Amino acid sequence: MFSVSSAYEVASNLREELRGNTGSSRGAERDSRTWKRTWALKIKAKLKHFVWRVYKGWIAVNSALNKRGIKVDEQSKRCGEGLEKIEHVSFHCRKSILIWKMSSVQWDGIQHLTESFPDWWDKLREARASEDFTARLEISVYTLWQIWKSRNSWLFEEKETEPLLIAQRALNEWNEFKPVHPQTNVPTQSISSEEGTQGWRCPESGMVRINVSSFRGASNGGTGIGLVMRHENGGLVLAKPSLLEATQSSLSAELESIRMGLQEAQGRGLKKVEMQIDEMNIVMWLQRQIRPIAEVMAIVDDI
Ligand SMILES: [Zn+2]
Predict the structure, then answer these.
(1) pLDDT tens digits for range 70-87
(2) Dist. CA 82 → ligand 1 center (Å)
(3) Ligand 1 centroid distance, CA of 96 (Å)
(4) Which of 5, 143, 181, 250 lies at a CB distance of 3.0 to 4.6 Å from 170, suitable for a disulfide?
(5) Which residues, 6 or more positions from 193, have their beta carbon under 8 angstroms from its beta carbon?
(6) CA distances from residue 262 to 210, 273, 278, 300 in whole angstroms, order as listed
(7) pLDDT attached to residue 253
(8) Which PANTHER family match (predicted)?
(9) May I ask the CATH architecture of the domain 183-302?
(10) How many whole angstroms from 24 Cα to the centroid of ligand 1?
(11) What are the extents of the domains in the chain?
């Protein structure tokens, strides 16, 4: 998994956005604003309720149960290193720290606010609603939700799941609810008279959708990549699996499959291509929202 080092950028934006907003009282007005903005997020309704319950301290962590007169050990059983408040479960429990590290969304710039979930949440949801920022915010809610679920399955079912897997579940759940379809224009300079021999030609107005995906553990022990090209009416244009060398990271495999997809599209003289990309970091990179890492640069320069 790849850490998006956007903390500095986010912190700077937040500083600008929130200058003059001290908001330390938790009055009805603040609640009302938070509720409205939380509800406006394009996430599953149950997650809007979930984050609202967390915000209001209505989640049944041990310290909250004690406040309601239910006697439980207030210590976090999972790590034994602190009172189990919602902030502990969400951010500071040993497992939660690992899950956030594996997440594609990092909010290091506002780390100090994690002592109070309401402060943390209000800082985030009051920031400027750029598309990229909103996506990160949404993924964060799915991450919090998965962290909470993993706490419960550990506590009640004694099930332990890898932090990376939990972070990926959050990203998948977000992706399923709100798919990302960045549009990529393919250059057309290489159209030749030979292209008819491919047996298929995209209509001028037609849109072709390319799905690329990569997976580890292919039959040769290496990384497999898959490329599926469909016409907008659903008709299959091309389905092409390939194998890469075993040493490929999943990021470079994903990029390799994108390059393959673009080459195939270019070879067919396609003008309108919609590419579906699973890897959120690449999508963000393509939208020029994050600083590319060296590995990405090397491959994309070559496209
Ligand atoms: Zn803990």
Answers:
(1) 777 788 888 988 888 899
(2) 6
(3) 8
(4) 143
(5) none
(6) 9, 9, 16, 11
(7) 72
(8) BNAC02G40300D PROTEIN, RNASE H TYPE-1 DOMAIN-CONTAINING PROTEIN
(9) 2-Layer Sandwich (3.30)
(10) 27
(11) 7-177, 183-302
